[in-house]
Amino acid sequence: MTLKDLSEATGLSQAFLSEVENGKANPTIDTLRRLARGLGVSLFDILSEEESFVDIVRARERRVVNSSEYNVDYELVSTLLPSAKSQVVMAWLYPGASTSDQPQSHGAPGDEEIAIVITGSITITLNEKTYTLNEGDSIRFNPYVPHHYTNVGSTRAGLLTVMTPPSF
Fold first, then answer.
1. Average pLDDT, stretch 61-81?
2. 69-74: average pLDDT
3. Which residue, 58, 80, 66, 74, is CA-closest to 158?
4. Right CATH number for 52-164 from 3.40.50.1460, 2.60.120.10, 3.40.50.720, 3.20.20.70?
5. What is the spatial distance between Cα 64 and Cα 116, in angstroms, rounded to a whole number?
6. Which residues touch 112 (CB under 8 Å, ≥6 apart)?
7. Which of the chain's ends, N or C, has fewer CB atoms near its CB within 10 Å?
8. What distance in Å separates the CA atoms of residue 32 and residue 87, rounded to the nearest whole number?
9. Can you give the pLDDT at residue 2?
């Protein structure tokens, strides 16, 4: 695929794509998602490291992707191997932060996302309905349905998500 093809598929300029490719630009999470869709891969295909048979990710070595526009930090709890059937992501939402401005979808019909609130209180808007989840609560749903998470508490909230198949 050429830069021109990718530019047409993503709506991003060829100049910007070249800067990203050469490490001169730092793309946002939304930009990375657009790139992933344009390439026909998941976000974690773009972010993952080389494959290994046993996948151990030490807490202090987790890769963190910061979405400063939404005040959310994403920790890659597991690397995404080509043979992976799921992916695990820890999202840290600061007070009042949401994972996106509007509910968004990823994946395909029949996929699953499971989210467990590790700390704090979070709402999830799903199919225009809002659910409140507190520490220890979990939810399972199809990520193809537009959704987003919001921290409704006064402290940073932690949300562990598992997506099957990988689709973040």
1. 84
2. 90
3. 74
4. 2.60.120.10
5. 19
6. 140, 141, 142, 143, 163, 164
7. N
8. 17
9. 84
Q: Which pTM was predicted?
A: 0.66
112 in Cβ contact with 136 (< 8 Å) = no
C-alpha of 61 from chain center:
18
Contacts of 16 (CB under 8 A, 6+ apart): 25
Backbone angles phi and psi of 143, in degrees to 5: -70, -10
Angle at 20 between CA 19 and CA 24, to 5 degrees: 55
Is the Cβ–Cβ distance between 57 and 78 less than 8 Å?
A: yes
The two three-digit tokens of residue 24, written as one number: 């001169």
Sequence length of the chain is: 168
Kindly list the domain boundaries of the chain, sorted by start residue: 1-40, 52-164
Beta-carbon contacts of residue 123 (< 8 Å; ≥ 6 apart): 130, 131, 132, 133, 149, 150, 152
Asked whether the beta carbons of 151 and 122 are under 8 A apart, the reply is yes
The total of other beta-carbon atoms located within 10 Å of residue 160's CB is: 16
